[in-house]
Design a protein that fits this description.
about 170 residues, alpha+beta
């Protein structure tokens, strides 16, 4: 049987935008597992799902500082019904110096992109609208290719913009 991991509480029972802020303050990481399971974190009696995501450090600074893998790992559990998030960590980074972060779409930006994609707006227009809505400069937003990839994937998988034929 696998060893039990002693997760340390980083943020408990926060909402989605607050969770994005906590994750943005962390060093770069990659999601290694993302599963849905029966929710055990909220007190709602009706059965529903939660998503749990395991994260591992993929910082260039930690990788170059040691020949061994960084010992830091993170866990984020999200109730899919109430949008309640808890974040846990275990281990320490090899070095405290942080590498430059890649600009990613936050969950609120993703929801905004989904809404506009359902109205058949193009990714370039969506990106410019995001700059106005979130009151940021275009340079501070993720690259156009990131928005294109997200919008096109959403359109293909959820809106039926594909060449598949149902027999």
């Amino acid at each position: 049987m696998p060893k039990r991991i002693a997760w340390q509480d980083t943020a408990l029972g926060i909402d989605g935008p607050s969770a994005d802020a906590v994750l943005d303050s962390m060093k770069s990481y990659e999601i290694t597992k993302s599963n849905t399971m029966a929710c055990t974190m909220c007190s709602d009696l009706e059965p529903h799902k939660m998503r749990y995501r395991l994260r591992e450090c993929n910082s260039q600074m930690c990788e170059s500082a040691s020949e061994f893998a960084c010992g830091w790992r993170g866990n984020m559990v999200t109730c899919l019904k109430n949008d309640e998030v808890s974040i846990y960590t275990v281990g320490e980074h090899t070095t405290q110096a942080s590498s430059p972060k890649k600009k990613k779409l936050t969950s609120t930006q993703k929801a905004f992109c989904r809404d506009l994609a359902e109205h058949h707006l193009r990714p370039m227009r969506i990106r410019h609208t995001m700059a106005r809505k979130f009151d940021t400069l275009l340079e501070d937003l993720p690259a156009l290719s990131t928005v294109q990839n997200f919008v096109n994937h959403h359109a293909r998988s959820n809106l039926g913009n594909n060449d598949r034929v149902d027999d």
